[in-house]
């Protein structure tokens, strides 16, 4: 088991082992000690003892006990994200040490939504294992990345697809929803101002978004047009418009418009990984694995 030292300010440094954190995450994810015990292949009493040991080390309770299971305390919720990052880093490091160093090149096309979140984790883990590989990243919308993949200009594409069954590998489901600024009642205006992408052939997201408004009888007008999701986010943050965004991309100071607001989910969109089957290589496969692990850590 790996020893981890977590620091809470200058006066408090706690040595923890990864085994405790894995058990903590299992309990947090299942909300039940019995199911968590099955997940980590331990007895329920052993899981209870590990949680008690972790709580004693930290000096505060991580769970509230109820008749039907357990729920995280405020302190427990603070620990969850750090614990996931630590465990993911240890797993990536172990995987890296087992892999032979590769060389060559790999080219990735990815949507803007994951450029600053998931992709850095994948690139960091990959670079640690394969420092001699030349990596090129192309940021673009899904249609352009698919065209580049078909043309042989990139080796891996991480793109959006409409929700539902697919033949492609699904990395995660990231629902497309309407987003609005917390500080503005933009969604209450009529016609409601919306921000939309510059139209792309095959651009299903805007079509689904507009159909969702019509289905609910909400009049709308296009107030902002952008080629990038950052442009849509700017329109939302400023209160100029609402926009259809991936749930994971909603920025601080904004929120999802739900059924209670009269809107609801537009589509249970899939984020999928595409490669060219006729141009596989150990280097491309290794990068694809790094991307998969990064998305699992983001769930």
UniProtKB/TrEMBL annotation:
Gene3D superfamilies xref list: Periplasmic binding protein-like II (3.40.190.10), Winged helix-like DNA-binding domain superfamily/Winged helix DNA-binding domain (1.10.10.10)
Gene Ontology molecular function: any one: DNA-binding transcription factor activity
UniProt xrefs under InterPro entries: LTTR, LysR_HTH_N, LysR_subst-bd, WH-like_DNA-bd_sf, WH_DNA-bd_sf
Keywords: DNA-binding, Transcription, Transcription regulation
Signal sequence extent: none
UniProt domain HTH lysR-type: residue ranges: 16-73
PANTHER family assigned to the protein according to its UniProt record, in alphabetical order: HTH-TYPE TRANSCRIPTIONAL REGULATOR LRHA-RELATED, TRANSCRIPTIONAL REGULATOR
Similarity remark: Belongs to the LysR transcriptional regulatory family.
Stated name of the protein: LysR family transcriptional regulator
């Amino acid at each position: 088991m790996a020893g981890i030292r977590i620091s809470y300010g200058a006066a408090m440094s706690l040595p923890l082992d990864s085994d405790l954190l894995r058990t903590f995450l299992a309990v947090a994810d299942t909300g039940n000690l019995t199911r968590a015990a099955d997940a980590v292949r331990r007895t329920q009493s052993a899981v209870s003892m590990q949680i008690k040991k972790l709580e004693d080390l930290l000096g505060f309770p991580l769970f509230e006990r109820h008749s039907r299971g357990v729920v995280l305390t405020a302190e427990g919720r603070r620990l969850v994200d750090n614990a996931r990052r630590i465990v993911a880093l240890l797993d990536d490091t172990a995987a890296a040490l087992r892999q032979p160093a590769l060389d060559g090149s790999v080219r990735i096309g990815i949507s803007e939504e994951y450029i600053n979140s998931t992709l850095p984790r994948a690139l960091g883990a990959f670079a640690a294992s394969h420092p001699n590989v030349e990596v090129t990243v192309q940021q673009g919308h899904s249609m352009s990345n698919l065209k580049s993949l078909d043309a042989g200009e990139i080796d891996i594409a991480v793109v959006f697809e409409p929700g539902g069954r697919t033949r492609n590998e699904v990395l995660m489901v990231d629902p497309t929803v309407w987003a609005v600024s917390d500080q503005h009642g933009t969604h209450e205006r009529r016609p409601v101002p919306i921000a939309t992408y510059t139209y792309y052939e095959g651009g299903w997201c805007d079509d689904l978004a507009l159909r969702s408004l019509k289905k609910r009888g909400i009049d709308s007008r296009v107030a902002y047009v952008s080629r990038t999701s950052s442009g849509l986010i700017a329109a939302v943050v400023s209160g100029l418009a609402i926009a259809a965004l991936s749930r994971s991309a909603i920025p601080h100071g904004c929120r999802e418009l739900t059924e209670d607001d009269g809107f609801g989910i537009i589509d249970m969109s899939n984020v999928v990984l595409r490669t060219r089957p006729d141009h596989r290589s150990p280097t491309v496969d290794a990068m694809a694995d790094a991307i998969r692990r990064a998305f699992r850590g983001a769930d």
